[in-house]
Design brief:
Low-confidence stretches: none
Distance between the termini: 37 Å
Number of strands: 12
Structural class: alpha+beta
Helix content: 25-40%
Strand content: 15-25%
Order of helices and strands: HHEEEEEEHHEEHEEEEHHH
Radius of gyration: 20 Å
Number of helices: 8
Shape: globular
Mean pLDDT: 95
Largest sheet: 6 strands, antiparallel
Length: 300
């Protein structure tokens, strides 16, 4: 029997897995900080992100000395942490309810030490409340079914971003997960430098050094308590938020200059991927046309 749209694009209500998401978010920050410590810098912080892989979220290969590579992954199918090295090293432990952020940190760094991978990280969580990651015993919830549903949404959203990427021939980021905010994102660039952001911190200055239009998936948080897709242009030009979006359920946050479409409206549509692509493509045209991008030169 062919699965229904609701089964292939599963429900992911924020409130039902908020505590698990908070735990997963902190696990992801630890992995991302290890990648930051080991990987040479790239433009726009692309060297620190996580990738959606066949079994979950991965750092990809990271140089760890002596010509070796190490790779960390959150296997969201067997639900375990996996550490592997290019010389055959293999360490893993289960992700389960009751495994606190501090326990995760300690087990991971013990495994890194056993395999001779030296990485030092700043253990203060980035833009998250609570104690240091190596001392955090507050966040220990793990709902395995919710995590599996989240991974399904990540895979389908990543596939849609890859399809979207085929429209464009300019500079474009990978589809990757930014662990500081836990959003899956991809960005397009016009090739022009952006106006200087006076007073911006170094992270923001580097991220927005050039004109960009970004697309992504946001699983929700306490301020925006529902999963949603988004798109925005930076800098946002006059008239952007007056442009019509599709489908009708999409809307502009006029203060932030960001277009949103709830995940539930996508999964309930007749063809979720085409609905999502139409939303992103329309938001891209709104941003590119109001910013004066050379659409013909950037279109495949």
């Amino acid at each position: 029997m062919k699965p229904s749209q609701a089964e292939t694009w599963p429900a992911l209500p924020y409130e039902a897995w908020a505590e698990t998401k908070a735990t997963l978010h902190r696990y992801c920050q630890i992995l991302g900080k290890v990648r930051l410590a080991l990987t040479p810098p790239r433009n726009h912080w692309w060297h620190v992100t996580l990738q959606v892989g066949a079994r979950g979220l991965t750092t990809g290969p990271m140089p760890c000395g002596g010509g070796r590579f190490a790779e960390l992954a959150l296997d969201l199918i067997d639900q375990q942490l996996v550490l592997q090295t290019s010389d055959g090293g293999d360490e893993r432990f289960a992700l389960a309810d009751g495994l606190s952020c501090a326990d995760f940190y300690q087990r991971l760094f013990a495994a890194l030490d056993r395999l001779g991978v030296a990485a030092r990280i700043w253990t203060r969580p980035f833009d998250l409340p609570g104690p240091r990651l190596d001392r955090d015993r507050q966040h220990d919830r793990w709902d395995a079914q919710a995590v599996a549903r989240y991974f399904e949404v990540l895979r389908r959203s990543t596939e849609a971003l890859w399809t979207l990427a085929g429209d464009f021939v300019g500079k474009q980021s990978p589809a990757h997960l930014f662990w500081h905010s836990l959003d899956l994102a991809m960005a397009r660039f016009s090739g022009r430098r952006a106006p200087e952001r006076h007073g911006a911190d170094p992270v923001t200055r580097e991220a927005y050094s050039h004109e960009v239009i970004a697309f992504g998936f946001w699983p929700g948080d306490a301020k925006v308590p529902f999963p949603a897709y988004y798109a925005y242009a930076a800098p946002a030009r006059p008239g952007l938020t007056e442009r019509t979006l599709w489908p009708e359920a999409a809307w502009w946050d006029h203060d932030a200059g960001t277009a949103y479409l709830k995940y539930d409206d996508v999964r309930a549509s007749r063809d979720p991927q085409e609905t999502l692509l139409a939303f992103w493509r329309g938001a891209y045209l709104a941003g590119a046309e109001t910013s004066g991008w050379d659409l013909s030169a950037l279109r495949r």
